[in-house]
Amino acid sequence: MDSADETFDFVIVGSGGGSMCAALVVKSMGFRPLVLEKTDLFGGTTAKSGGIMWIPNNRFMKRDGIADSTEKAMTYLDHIVGDHDDTPGATRERRLVYVNEAPRMVDFLVDQGIELDRHRYWPDYYDDQPGGLKEGRAVFAELFDASMLGPARAKLRPNFVPVPVKSQEMWELPLFKRTWLGKWTMAKLVLRMIAAKLTGKHWVAGGAALQGRMLHKALEGSVDMRTNAGVERLVTGEDGRVVGVLAKVEGKPQRIAARFGVLINAGGFAHNQAMRDKYQPGTSAEWTATCPGDTGEMILEMKRLGASIAQMEEMVGNPAALPPGLPGRIALVVSEIAKPHSFVIDQSGERYTNENQSYMSFCQDMLARHMAVAAVPSWLVFDSQYMDKYMVAGTLPGSKKPQGWYDGGWLKKAATIGDLAHQLAIDPGKLAATVERFNGFARRGKDEDFNRGGRAFDRFLGDRTHAPSPAMAPVEKAPFYAYQFYPGDVGTYGGVVTDSHARVLREDGTVIPGLYATGTSTAGVMGRAYPGAGASIGPSFVWGYVAAKHAMTGAVASDRKTHEMTAAIHEIQVQ
Q1: Which of 210, 299, 385, 494 is the most exposed place for a label (fewest CB within 10 A)?
Q2: Quick one: which of 334, 333, 342 has its CA closest to 480?
Q3: CA-based angle 218:58:208, to the nearest 5?
Q4: How far apart are CA 79 and CA 82, in angstroms?
Q5: Which pLDDT tens digit goes with each residue over 460-503?
Q6: Which of 310, 311, 317 shows the shortest CA–CA distance to 367?
Q7: pLDDT range class, residue 327, cuts 50, 70, 90
Q8: What is residue 140's three-state secondary structure?
Q9: Are 464 and 470 in contact (CB under 8 A)?
């Protein structure tokens, strides 16, 4: 790249998911990476998230005696992802590379000093399918003391959970009023917060813990990382190889050369309404939980170079409520719609799907239903037993709800089902029939319409303390309530098509040399399915790891060849 302001071995665009993983691989192989983040904070949407990675056959499963294998994981993915002409990012070849490389990536991170572990019980989302595991394949990062980052602590994107609660504790904490384990979990959290205040620690959880640990290791290794550094253009050589980027760093234009490649991990297009209207009509940027930088321009820039794009209509759907009084914030309510003493209806008053399925498949069903019957938004209907036991839009069980929720019409309250139907503009007879049918299923413990509670994951998402069904209970005790929610998301799921080395492909299937991509900038390896917790963060890390290994292996070969040529020339000159 002529007249470059700076030169690095590998340039990484974006700081979410697999970016710092790729940077650590590059650094471990003796080369110089550069991470460019266009926003003012590191970590991407991964830092905001639960920070879970779906990793088959990982070291922690082996430690705990959980049987898994490449064959078992592939059987599972073959059943729920499958091979389809319209999901070129999810070929069986790529799925096999993912299953094989995922545990190696985790081993690499652990060897680098990243503290990870497995969730002791988080079922695969289709655990009833061949190869599915009730124990799950979820890997997470231990709590991280962000004060270890020093001044860079201010640069770490905060998590959606503002308290230092561990991943496994998240499922016990809402039960603190009703179980001894819940009470002990609450006590541990309070003691942890007091201890942190006394010792000056600043614990962060979930995705912030994962990305905080990654950022700390990257900075410890002197990885060059820059915020407010948006890439505006990919630069190619005469042979079409990507050789660098044009970026604006702190408002100043920079030409940055990349000796051995550029990795794009810049997120999807969740905040780009024009792209959503084109590829995902009927969805809104107002319903997304992604970070503000998720605007899609790097997907378009790769497309400008001829990259093939696919699976653009898919997103990692996650039911989202928009209670008033929370400007710029949405409430993800997937666990709320799955609790007993509640059910979901469309705007006609009918149930239309299993409330306890995975968040992605639920939103797929919601959007599909909306094609025939208005279902966006849908209503969660629940009774006073639910109000006493479970969280509502993030508020604690049994707590007084903001008056503005009632005054603004978001949260409905009624003495009878008939009165609630009138408030929802639904035929009272139809809603009453829905309640009667659902309550009958709940009392018998079997949902004959949608098999709610039929999977281990359904029951996990419900309330394990409730019998006979953790997933269902009658809606029968007044007053009755309802609130609206939408098919939100935690990221789009389509982008450029990549091969088994994470190289970006043209529409004719040839490689764009020097260009790699991972994360939601790509057409996902899971196609139109979400096999388990962390099925987007896991691939982001894995393909970042794969891309860096491939590029740096080529770099080693190139440097060796250069060294050999230099030595040969020197020998000729000496002779």
Answers
A1: 385
A2: 342
A3: 40
A4: 6
A5: 999 999 988 999 999 999 999 999 999 999 999 999 999 999 99
A6: 317
A7: low
A8: strand
A9: yes
pTM: 0.94
Q: Per DSSP, what are the bridge partners of residue 255?
A: 246
pLDDT of residue 554: 84
Cα 563 to its chain centre, rounded Å, is 43
**Strand, helix or coil for residue 88:** helix
- In whole angstroms, what is the distance from residue 56 CA to residue 118 CA? 11
- Identify the sign of the CA torsion 123, 129, 132, 138: negative
Structure tokens at 187: 């006590």
CB 471 within 8 A of CB 452: yes
Task: Report the distance separating Cα 503 and Cα 561, nearest Å.
Answer: 23
Let me know: does 521 contact 303? Beta carbons within 8 Å: no
For residue 479, is the peptide bond before it cis, meaning its omega torsion is within 30 degrees of 0? Answer: yes
Bridge partners for 413 per DSSP: 481
DSSP 148: G
pLDDT at residue 573, rounded to an integer: 45
Cα–Cα separations (whole angstroms), residue 312 to 44, 281, 410: 20, 11, 32
Two structure tokens written together for 409: 């019409």
Nearest partner of 553 among 260, 236, 239, judged by Cα: 260
Identify whether the C-beta of residue 239 lies closer than 8 Å to the C-beta of residue 512: no
What pLDDT does residue 88 have? Answer: 97
Asked whether 454 and 443 are in contact (CB, 8 A), the reply is: no
Tell me the C-alpha to C-alpha distance, in Å, between residue 161 and each of 1, 13, 126, 204: 44, 27, 27, 8
Closest CA to 377 of 286, 501, 506, 246: 286
> Is beta strand 480-485 parallel, antiparallel or unpaired with respect to 495-496?
unpaired
**Cα–Cα distance measured from residue 392 to residue 399, given in angstroms and rounded to the nearest whole number:** 9
HEC string for 284-312: CHHHECCCCCCCCHHHHHHHHCCECEECC
What amino acid is encoded at 533 in this protein? Answer: A
Read off the tokens for 43. Answer: 């970590």
**340 backbone dihedrals φ, ψ, rounded to 5°:** -60, 165
How much is the average pLDDT of 301-328? 93
**β-sheet with 342-345: strand ranges across:** 342-345, 378-383, 480-485, 411-414
Least Cα distance to 53 among 137, 122, 126, 159 occurs for 137
Separation between Cα atoms, residue 81 and residue 67, nearest integer Å: 22
Whether the per-residue pLDDT at 565 is higher than 50: the answer is no
Place of tokens 């790529």: 94
In 3D, which of 514, 21, 503, 13 has the Cα closest to residue 265?
Answer: 13
Cβ atoms of 35 and 224 closer than 8 Å:
yes
In contact, 380 and 337? CB cutoff 8 Å: yes
Give the confidence band of 523 by pLDDT, cuts at 50, 70, 90: very high
* 574 burial via Cβ count (<10 Å: 0-12, 13-18, 19+): exposed
Report which secondary-structure segment, H or E, holds 380. strand 378-383
Tokens coding 224: 């060059």
Q: What is the pLDDT of residues 253-299, one digit of tens each?
A: 999 999 999 999 999 999 999 999 999 999 999 999 999 999 999 99
Lowest average pLDDT, out of 165-174, 253-262, 397-406, 559-568, goes to 559-568
